[in-house]
Amino acid sequence: MICETILHYKVLEKLGEGGMGEVYKAQDTKLERFVALKFLPTAITSTQEEKARFIQEAKAASAMNHPNVCTIHSIEEYNNQVFIVMEFVDGKTLKDKKDTLSEKQILEIGIQVAEGLAAAHEKGIVHRDIKPENIMVRKDGIVQIMDFGLAKLRETSGVSRLTKTGTTMGTMGYMSPEQVQGLDVDHRTDIFSLGVVLYEMLAGESPFKGVHETAIMYEIVNVDPPPISTLSKNITPELDEIILECLEKDKDERCQSAKELAKDLRKVKKTTGNRKSRIYSANTSSIKTSSGPVNTSKSTGSFTIEISNKRIDLLKILNSNYFRWGIVIILGLAVIYLTISRRSGVQQITSTTSILPPTNVDFTGNTADPGDFEISHDGKKIVFAGTDSTGKSQLWLRQLSSENAKPIPGTDGAYYPFWSYNDKFVAYFIPNKLMKIDLSTGLSTEICPAQDGRGGSINKNGDIVFSPNSIGGLYLVSSNGGVPKEIVKTDKNIHDQSLRFPFFLPDGIHFLYAVENDFYGASPTDVVKAGSINSGFDRVIMTSSTNAEYTDGYIFFTRQSALLCQKFNPDNLQFNGDVQTIANYINYDATRIKASFSVSTSGNLIFLHGFQANSNFVFFGVNGSETELPIRTNAITSGTPLSPEIGASLSYNMKGVLYTDQGRQSDNSEISEYNLATKINSKITFNMALNSNPAWSPDGKLAAFSSGPDIYIKNANGTGNEKLVYKADSSYYKITDDWSSDGSLLLVNDLMPRTGFQFIIVNIKDGSSSLYLSSGSTNINLINGKFSRSMKWILYSSSQSGTEQLYVRPLNKNESGLWQISTDGAAQGWWVNNDKYIIYLSKENKVFKVSVNGSGSEFIVGPSQYLFSLSDRNLSGLSDVSKDGSVFLSTRPVGKEAIPPLTYVQNWKGLLNENDK
């Protein structure tokens, strides 16, 4: 086609091609100008439908006349080929320029694209394929949107869409969640795509990653990208918020107008420009002042500041009589202001302070989530759970007037602390108990049993309303101790419902609490309710997956990782006024629907920002050799990684690693495989569920994994469909602990919330299953089971003695015998060297090797040998051990220091809008 003349257009060169056609540069011989011609491939234009769609594109685009939209000159047809004659843009695509742009240039491009889209949207046109290749930057700096080949007229424009039902149109990586799911789209899909483009330019990487299209689609629909500020330190915070709002999954929560987006970007650009234009300079040369020449031997110098190209001599101002009298007046007004403020009892100044943990201590407690803290009612101190470098977790107390926190002896393993009404004691949970400690005497006492507490609150009479377990209702007990009474029951129609994190309202009778309707975490049906210590009261306050707290006329809660508050009347339990944003990117545990914040009754607030808590997988040998793999357990912007001991599995032949690839929302995860030979990382499940705990088959061809409460197997290369092999009778976690050496059996760990742990053996061949062992008690752990290679024994961890230890018993239930392997506490163990040894990890993070002999009817336990300490290597837990015992798979925290300090806000009302204080 090059050099050919079509009608009166001489084709000069090919500019590019895409899914909807080829584009050529041509010369318009009539008007003596360069143009671009866009042709559809012959195969596509063979149908009248595609021709109609192509003409529709041209008509839609030609209706626009905007400097940021490529102009359409005409629609032509030649030899049964329809083509569009477009303005020729002399420049480069954004794809070619994006690596060389400054933040200011990126902002300008974003503004122009948004303005072009606003013009299109006003005419009912949606582009649906905004990407760097479709954005041209001309040599004169004007930005133009190209290729409205995927444009769709909204139904309101009165034009038929001519798009096949269910067709997904757009470019992978830049598509909106509604495009990916084949749902109807509107102008907000372009806003999402532009958000992706801006994110990519500013962060230097795509917000949605994956080795293939299915993985990218999964992330677009389910995974929230991290704030750009976590990837680029110099990003303007306001710009970060704008772009993340463009990338909201729910289009109703997204930026609603391209025109408003352009306006917001322009404000940021203006601020950025002003910030960079400030120049501070010191000039020590002698000058003349109003009092005459300066003695050059004692030069007073000058200090000048240049703002908006105006130079101001600060010393001249400081030496003037006007300045001195101004200072006197200001000080006088300040005295009057402070006097009035003190008399009115109102603190007028809002201040924000960062609170660091003690040296070598993290803000993490027994829940492994850095959200275990609470501010006292008087706002003068905080209590928090902290873990030191040895792994010891306990409560710490810090007076907010002091820089140092002190440990509270006798609170080992404590979590979810909460203050008494008078701040004299702190109640807290440890496994199986609700405790309290008197801060004046240090005396710690048990209040009542509580298996696995989920928060509590104390009123002025010393009544405690609390959640004693991960499922079930709320209970009332005196802080002096006694038998708890259930006061709010769960809905019998919702299996495994959990009522949690109660918080007393001022009357000491009513309280707020969170309702989690799905055992696996946040769900659309979760609500916040108000209950009463008097039976029979139950009212929904809001629909949200969050804990909620009340203070001084406001309820605090979270949505979309933002800490919000709204006026609330505790007498009639009604909201009024607008929702106010206090802070963004709050740490949030989606599995427990708990956000990390706490309010006092004195106008003070404390919260924790979200963070990235990643861990890289590491191979290492007994001899100290080490290889860090380019894969991570997960990357959650708020929360902590999955436990490595249940998150990964090493293949028998040492060729691959299966691991749990958790999404940033913590409410879904997939199984991925890292091939150690090809160094390729790929997902093998794509069903957007809570998939976890993978285990290799002995031949390396299959992967078994948990998907919600059920167990599935699938081809390890990702092909084919999942096969259900064990259907659970409850919605609680099932863990695929091990696969037998002959490939016929799976050992499944089943948590039964009312009867305790149990091991289930699943026969892969015939689909049958049978109970192997039950703990018989919810207070006894029964975890991490492993078949011996001979299939004669099972190794597992149990807390039957009060401490987790490793035991071995016969696989045949008709045979008796029980042998203890560890003596210093252990939750994990592996058979190695054809059952000649057992390697285990102790509670102190130390690895031991025990010689064993199970060839006869009796099991013989020999001496143990200390190998090494994981703590010495900065490693966290063991994921797996090779069958010969020579190689270990573990994880190493990455960027542990990224866990932010607590943020302490005095007089939080100063953060509210003026009309809502």
Q: What order do the helices and strands come in, and which of them pair?
A:
Blueprint lengths: L4 E2 L2 E10 L2 E8 L4 E7 L8 H15 L9 E7 L2 E7 L3 E3 H4 L5 H20 L2 E2 L8 E4 L4 E3 L6 E2 L23 H4 L7 H16 L9 H10 L14 H10 L11 H20 L1 E5 L18 E6 L2 E4 H5 L2 H24 L6 E5 L5 E2 L10 E3 L5 E8 L4 E7 L5 E3 L7 E5 L5 E6 L2 E6 L5 E6 L6 E3 L4 E4 L7 E5 L6 E4 L9 E7 L5 E7 L10 E6 L5 E6 L5 E3 L2 E6 L2 E8 L4 E10 L4 E2 L4 E2 L1 E3 L4 E5 L5 E8 L4 E7 L15 E3 L5 E7 L6 E7 L5 E3 L7 E6 L5 E6 L2 E6 L7 E4 L7 E6 L5 E8 L3 E8 L5 E6 L7 E6 L5 E6 L6 E6 L8 E2 L5 E7 L4 E6 L3 E8 L6 E10 L6 E6 L5 E8 L7 E5 L11
Antiparallel strand pairs: 1-2, 2-3, 3-4, 4-6, 5-6, 7-9, 8-11, 9-10, 12-13, 13-14, 15-65, 16-18, 17-18, 18-19, 19-20, 21-22, 22-23, 23-24, 25-26, 26-27, 27-28, 29-30, 30-31, 31-32, 33-34, 34-35, 35-36, 37-38, 39-40, 40-65, 41-42, 41-64, 43-44, 44-45, 45-46, 47-48, 48-49, 49-50, 51-52, 52-53, ...
Helix pairs in contact: 3-5, 3-8, 5-7
Description:
The protein is mostly beta strands and 917 residues long. The protein has four domains: 1-88, Phosphorylase Kinase, domain 1, CATH 3.30.200; 91-277, Transferase(Phosphotransferase) domain 1 (Transferase(Phosphotransferase), domain 1), CATH 1.10.510.10; 354-551, Methylamine Dehydrogenase, Chain H; 614-894, Neuraminidase (6 Propeller), CATH 2.120.10.30. Helix content is 14%, strand content 39%. Strands 1-2-3-4-6-5 form a six-stranded antiparallel beta sheet, with helices on one face. Strands 16, 17, 18, 19 and 20 form a five-stranded antiparallel beta sheet that branches. The chain has a four-stranded antiparallel beta sheet with strand order 15-65-40-39, with no helix packed on it.
